[in-house]
Specification:
single chain, mainly alpha, 11 helices, 0% strand, globular, EC 1.3.3.11
Length: 240
């Protein structure tokens, strides 16, 4: 690999998303296409909760390593987006409103008792990656948010159109993300463009984004195997 310009690096990152982002996964197509049963949608929401609930822990570990007040303030905003500020609910609470709306018992969701092993392994790997890798790699791994507005648009419009058990209130989690994600991307992408100044660092950045895309894909692989085909949920997992 040769050294890329900042624009060339950004283009390479976007190519990774075009190829690997889970908007292309068969389970996503089934979800927004109205091809899943309510029980299968419940399984998706229950497992996705662990990812949502782990994002603040991931971000807190990154904040602790940032060297300046300016950088820490920027990343603390993400914690508030997900944890709320004590008055306004954050993303974790809004996701629980989603699982409530789908008829899942909140205590059961929060207990994680029905979680798929594949979900747990993938999410834990992400938290560990951000905690242990360089700041540049940790920040680069968040850049899947470059591609999230498109998947959110597909998911919300498709689910509202195709499922009579879903309402706009149920999916209220996604509305703030349409503005929060681009704001997050603007900072993270600027940081990566500025600091990935060697071939080695650029390779690390690209690998970090591939890793993040892979773990998002792996979560849908686990859901598809357990609840679609062949439909074999492991012992202890949620059973509709």
């Amino acid at each position: 690999m040769r050294l890329l310009t900042p624009d060339g690096l950004e283009a390479a990152l976007r190519t990774i998303g075009e190829e690997r982002y889970h908007i292309h996964h068969p389970f996503h197509h089934l979800l927004h296409g109205g091809k899943l049963t309510k029980a299968q949608v419940q399984a998706w929401a229950l497992n996705r909760y662990y990812y949502q609930a782990s994002i603040p822990a991931k971000d807190a570990s990154l904040v602790a390593r940032l060297p300046t007040p300016e950088l820490r303030r920027e990343w603390r905003r993400r914690l508030e987006d997900h944890d709320g500020d004590g008055v306004h609910p954050g993303g974790v609470e809004r996701w629980l409103a989603l699982t409530d709306g789908l008829g899942l018992d909140r205590d059961y969701v929060v207990s994680l008792d029905g979680l798929l092993p594949g979900t747990r392994f993938a999410v834990d790997a992400y938290v560990r990656f951000v905690r242990e890798k360089s700041l540049l790699e940790a920040i680069a791994s968040s850049l899947t948010e470059m591609f999230s507005p498109n998947i959110i648009s597909q998911r919300v419009s498709g689910m509202l159109r195709n499922y009579d058990f879903v309402t706009e209130e149920t999916l209220a989690y996604f509305t703030p993300r349409l503005t929060q994600a681009p704001q997050d991307v603007a900072f993270a992408l600027s940081y990566v463009r500025e600091h990935a100044t060697t071939v080695e660092r650029q390779e690390q950045v690209l690998a970090a984004l591939r890793f993040k895309c892979d773990l998002l894909w792996a979560q849908l692989d686990a859901l598809h195997f357990a609840y679609v085909a062949p439909g074999l949920p492991p012992p202890g997992a949620f059973r509709p």
